[in-house]
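queue> pop job 88
queue> type: inverse folding (structure -> sequence)
queue> payload:
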């Protein structure tokens, strides 16, 4: 399998190098040259298989040429052996039509674990021969950072520099990052928003002063391997609910568009998806893009769902590229327009094609709280604010009653205990394995939201690499 950049001018790479590179050298994001296809018979045969076996089967076409099936299966068994539930991503029924797909049974209680536990092992597998070294630079609105740090702490060939917006993540999210004291982990709290942090990370991939010295890679969902691993649980949920003989709808709380793009990939691979519902909070750039073709940033409003407080959704570029006939030059032009004006319009073709599969809904803070109360009072389920936004969207979009609607439960409610208690009156406790989190020692550095300062900080601590990517 070869991978191409959404902006058309970077060299095509195979899976191993795409995983180690993260972002393409032209600033684009890597996507497979073609989408693998499963027949209805192949999808039907997935029913009842253990999650690790299913994961290896779904991902095998994407890693062809870089990993054999036996190695991939072994990595999956190692990655998901740390999850607290044997099903890894279990389904829970709420009522006659609605279901929760619980993605928070990993070590850091968020859906990011599903991808990042595997990504950490992929890094190790691809770096084990020789003295190659990665400098992983990431930006997090909360969950990516903790999941990446857990997956990469102590790994000998990797240093991690994780940027988070100071004061804009929950205390549990922050402490899950800052209490990991491994020598290869560097937490940086910056003055600014997640979008500011993400912009710095993207800039670093194009900064020759950095890329000529360090082999820089990414753990954000700009890294294709992240999305590849997330495609699996759409198939797991789909076949459990009757695919390929029945269409399934998914409601996905999203900020950076990675999780819902994984659903799009599953649909392109043959999973019968009725609708992908893009659920946003008041930071609603994706809702506006899908409903009116207006992709314009309007400033970030901090909310009780911080992982969705985003106005620059990196993975949306992957969708627009695919919907725009994979014209890299045209995509590069659209993204230049957005970078300059922080606004652009989808082309008529992009907007029409998106509307064939996607719909969207926006939740205010009051609607988010109401969804948390509905869940606990009606179904007995306590959900976090992000999942509540997904439930609000799922229940507000009209779908045929015979179509199951699966809301992705992206985080454990204890990660956002103050917001959950404010809405429901119930304080969700942390699982036993994290019960002492609030008493653990923290370590992090505070820096201004200035690229030069951050890049100097990283350059002073990262290991110079003999074979940088760029």
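queue> result:
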């Amino acid at each position: 399998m070869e991978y191409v950049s959404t902006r058309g001018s970077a060299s095509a790479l195979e899976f191993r190098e795409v995983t180690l590179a993260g972002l393409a050298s032209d600033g684009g994001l890597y996507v497979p040259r073609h989408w693998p296809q499963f027949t209805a018979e192949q999808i039907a045969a997935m029913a009842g298989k253990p999650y690790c076996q299913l994961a290896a089967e779904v991902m095998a076409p994407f890693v062809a040429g870089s990993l054999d099936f036996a190695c991939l299966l072994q990595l999956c068994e190692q990655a998901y052996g740390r999850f607290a539930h044997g099903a890894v991503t279990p389904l829970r029924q709420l009522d006659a039509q609605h279901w929760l797909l619980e993605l928070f049974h990993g070590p850091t209680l968020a859906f990011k674990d599903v991808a990042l536990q595997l990504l950490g092992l992929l890094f190790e597998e691809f770096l084990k021969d020789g003295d190659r070294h990665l400098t992983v630079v990431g930006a997090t609105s909360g969950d990516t950072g903790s999941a990446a740090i857990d997956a990469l702490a102590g790994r000998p060939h990797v240093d991690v520099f994780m940027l988070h917006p100071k004061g804009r993540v929950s205390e549990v999210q922050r402490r899950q990052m800052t209490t990991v004291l491994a020598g290869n982990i560097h937490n940086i709290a910056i003055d600014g928003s997640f979008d500011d942090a993400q912009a710095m990370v993207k800039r670093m991939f194009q900064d020759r002063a950095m890329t000529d010295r360090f082999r820089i890679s990414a753990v954000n969902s700009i890294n294709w391997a992240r999305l590849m691993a997330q495609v699996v649980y759409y198939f797991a949920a789909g076949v459990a609910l009757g695919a390929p003989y029945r269409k399934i709808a998914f409601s996905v709380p999203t900020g950076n568009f990675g999780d819902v793009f994984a659903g799009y990939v599953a649909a392109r691979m043959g999973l019968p998806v009725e609708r992908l519902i893009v659920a946003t909070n008041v930071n609603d750039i994706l809702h506006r893009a899908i409903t009116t073709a207006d992709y314009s940033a309007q400033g970030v409003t901090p909310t009780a769902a911080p992982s969705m407080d985003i106005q620059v959704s990196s993975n949306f570029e992957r969708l627009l590229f695919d919907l725009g006939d994979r014209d890299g030059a045209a995509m590069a032009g659209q993204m230049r327009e957005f970078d300059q004006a922080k606004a652009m319009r989808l082309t008529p073709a992009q907007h029409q094609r998106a509307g064939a599969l996607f719909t969207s809904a926006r939740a205010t803070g009051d609607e988010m709280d109401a969804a948390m109360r509905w869940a606990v009072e009606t179904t007995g389920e306590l959900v976090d604010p992000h999942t509540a936004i997904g439930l609000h969207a799922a229940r507000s979009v009209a779908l045929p009653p015979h179509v199951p609607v699966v809301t992705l439960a992206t985080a454990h409610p204890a990660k956002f205990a103050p917001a959950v208690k404010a809405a429901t009156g119930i304080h969700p406790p942390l699982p036993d394995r994290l019960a002492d989190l609030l008493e653990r020692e923290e370590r992090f550095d505070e820096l201004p939201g200035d690229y030069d300062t951050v890049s100097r900080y990283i350059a002073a601590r990262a290991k110079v690499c003999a074979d940088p990517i760029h």
